Amino acid sequence: MTYFSPMRETQFISKNKDKWGQYEKALERERQDPDLLSELYIHATDDLSYSRTFYPNRSVRVYLNGLARRTFLKVYKGRRGESSRFFSFWTDELPRILYKNRRALTISLVVFTVSMLIGVVSYLIDPEFAELILSEGYMETTRANIDRGDPMAIYKDRDAFGMFLYITLNNIRVALLTFALGVFAGVGSLVLLIQNGVMLGVFQYYFLDQGLFWESFSTIWIHGAIEISSIIIAGAAGLVMGGGWLFPGTLSRAQSFARSAREGVKIILGTIPLFIIAGFLESYLTRHTELPIAIRLLFILLCFAFIIWYYYIYPRLVVRSRPQSRRYDDRRLAAGSTQPIQTNRIKMMGEIYSDTFSWLWKQGKRAIIGCLLIATLYCFFAFNFTGAQPAYRFQFESNSFLLFYNFVALLSSWGMDREPGFILLVFGSLFAIQYVVYRLMNRELKLHDGDEQWWQPLKRLILPSAFLTILVAFSAGWTALLCFLFLPFVLTYGFVSYFQLGGIGKTVRYVYGHLVSAYSLSLLLLLLGFIIALFFDSTVSQIIFNFLGWIIAPDISAIDDYNNIILAFLNWTYLGFILILLSAGLGLNFLSVKEQEEAFFLLEEIENIGQEKRLRGLAVE
Questions:
Q1: Dist. CA 496–CA 506, nearest whole Å
Q2: What pLDDT is recorded for position 614?
Q3: Can you name the residues that pair with 618 across neighbouring β-strands?
Q4: What are 614's strand-pairing partners?
């Protein structure tokens, strides 16, 4: 019988010390090769496994344990940091998505261009078509400006800053709506592209007919080059989302839609800076019609050159220069809906976003039912335990894009002459929505066993809910500022408190110590939630109000009462859904940051090295 005899420790060290020395040098380099680091880690853990088996109490085991840990941490450090992730989104991730969906971008451009030609032909056939498509009031103002000798005076009527805010927000609203309507298999996006294209064609040809083409072109397209391009890109994002529903390929229709919606959100996210730039140009530069036309035309040319370079040329250069990169392969998202969410890994923002979407896919039905129930109870108490007429209980904005103001009107109590009990109603509703989302998260994540008394998790949510109530208690301006500064912290603290993962100090350190990941994820989830809310507010609410107009007698007072109650219910539902998204995403982000800071799972893995043998990657007893 043959017996296996292990080598002596000195022999083991002599055989491998050169290799370990190379590992040490590799770990000290500033620029790392991820493949090399991965190979080093495999060799280090193999040697550690051997030393734990045959030299459990010797210094070589301690040395190799440290080497393995350093290698593993170096692999994680090699992953992109928070700031580099932000820049890589614009330099690598978004260009790859644009290249992958270049056909949708081309279709959107062609549809918009053809629609402009349709607008021109329609004006040639019937010049009065301009008043139909651009409105009589706008055409009368434009004619009056032409008669005064200042055809572009419409861009000088307001103060620059107020105009900047209005134009930027309105353009973003149009882009989000163009994208959101892509959920109807892309048809909704095409309809809005055609509508905007026809309007632009009529508008531009009207000035040509008046002999003012170059004056109008050199003025309008200072901001229009970026603004119109962004609308075309938003239409392409809608087509991408709708295409996932129409053409699922080998994936299920739901999985394909999830993947394409994610890509569409990233494309539309990339247009927001463009709309801000376009709003600035329209507000501060377009009004300077005294500038020479040649300078204005040169600026327009540069704007078009940038759009063509970044959205058509640069994506091709990125793909050709790094064709093997699979960093942003979204196939994992498709499988994510059926795979359990891992809570013990360090994850990039895209992975956390995917996990949030995966959790919502599994628990979304229960979450929405809970949200609807809370909204119903909120409206019941808000409208039945007050002396105010329902029509005047809340003052809502009719513009769908002003959902934030509606949320403030729904929850704010400071200076609103509301009864003291109202703040308790707000607190109770926010408390309930947090309880729903964290209870459903525990169904998926299993972060605690549930053996504790039923009231203990409720007790832990009192302080986070009080913080959240304070954030929304003030006017729109103060609430916006407070939410920007503290909402990621408050929602993360709710997750931490519910699952007993730390206290206020730890939450502050993890949220504000990893500011980019917390705020980037919050922005992405807010955008997604806002798009969904905008879609429902623009479609479902109109159907409901039209239906009420048919079945309710023409009593204006009764109609106003019912409308306000329905608006309160819908707005609280939208708010609850957005809070669910943010709470789940920030909770998952905290788990990733926790592992990054504490490396608990990593240390546990290192301690378990040597407890099992591995043969060609398969664990055996």
A1: 9
A2: 43
A3: 615
A4: 619
Half-sphere exposure (Cβ direction) of 364: Cα atoms closer than 13 Å:
12
Cα–Cα distance, 251 to 259 (Å, whole number): 10
Full DSSP string of 322-345: STT--TT-THHHHHHTTSPPPSSS
Token pair 């040509």 is found at 208
Query: CA 456, CA 452: separation in Å to the nearest integer?
Result: 7
> CA torsion 284→287→288→290, rounded to 10°?
180
CB atoms within 10 A of CB 424: 13
Amino acid letter for position 170: N
What pLDDT sits at residue 83? 53
How do strand 613-615 and strand 618-620 relate by DSSP bridges?
antiparallel
Residue 345: both structure tokens together: 């890994």
- C-alpha span between 516 and 508 (Å, rounded): 14
Farthest CA pair distance, the chain: 110
Q: Provide the sign of the torsion angle of the four alpha carbons 469, 474, 477, 478, taken in this order.
A: negative
- DSSP reduced 3-state for 613: strand
Which stretches within 385-473 are classed as H helix? Answer: 403-411, 421-445, 455-460, 462-471
Q: Which of 541, 565, 556 is nearest to 392 (CA)?
A: 565
Structural contact between residues 608 and 614, judged by C-beta atoms closer than 8 angstroms: no
Angstrom distance (rounded) from CA 621 to CA 616: 14
311 vs 98, 102, 260, CA distance in Å?
Answer: 7, 9, 18
Question: Whose CA is closest to 352, among 97, 535, 534, 82?
Answer: 82
Answer for the pair 444, 359: CB distance below 8 angstroms, yes or no: yes
Burial label for 387, CB within 10 Å (0-12, 13-18, 19+), is exposed
CA distance 497 to 463: 9
Dump pLDDT digits (tens) for 488-534. 999 999 999 998 888 888 888 888 888 877 888 888 788 778 777 77
Euclidean distance between CA atoms 620 and 614, whole angstroms = 6
Phi, psi dihedral angles at 320 (to 5 degrees): -70, -30
Q: What is the phi/psi pair of residue 619, to 5°?
A: -80, 130
- 3-state SS, residue 614: strand
What is the distance between the terminal CA atoms of the chain, rounded to a whole angstrom? 23
Closest CA to 190 of 272, 110, 94, 274: 110
Return the closest-CA partner of residue 266 out of 87, 528, 518: 528
Q: How many helices (H) and strands (E) does the chain have?
A: 26, 2
**What is the helix (H) or strand (E) element at residue 618, kind and residue range?**
strand 618-620
pLDDT of residue 409: 86
Q: Enumerate residue ranges in the chain where pLDDT < 70.
A: 1-6, 27-42, 52-53, 55-62, 68-86, 150-166, 287, 289, 323-339, 387, 399-401, 415-417, 449-451, 535, 538-557, 599-621
Residues 162-176: pLDDT tens digits? 666 667 777 777 787
> For residue 615, what are the β-bridge partners?
618
- Beta-carbon contacts of 288 under 8 Å, excluding residues fewer than 6 positions away, are none
